[in-house]
């Protein structure tokens, strides 16, 4: 609903860096897919985990990791406080 009302899908800030990283960390598969469908940058950097792939991997969310990889997530990405 927020995206349909003009929310910026790649807005940066907060603990997780952006909405895609937060959804990836929490294991919200449907939200991850919605964000990607609305143009979320799969390799955006920032936040505690550095990128969505690292956030999902840190919590063992295999399905989200697969989704991110299918959308071009960079396997060798580095960054964040945890990585």
From TrEMBL:
ANK repeats lie at residues 15-47, 48-80. InterPro entries: Ankyrin_rpt (IPR002110), Ankyrin_rpt-contain_sf (IPR036770). PROSITE patterns: ANK_REPEAT (PS50088). Keywords: ANK repeat, Repeat. PANTHER family: ANKYRIN REPEAT DOMAIN-CONTAINING PROTEIN 39-RELATED, BRCA1-ASSOCIATED RING DOMAIN PROTEIN 1. This is Ankyrin. It comes from Apiospora phragmitis.
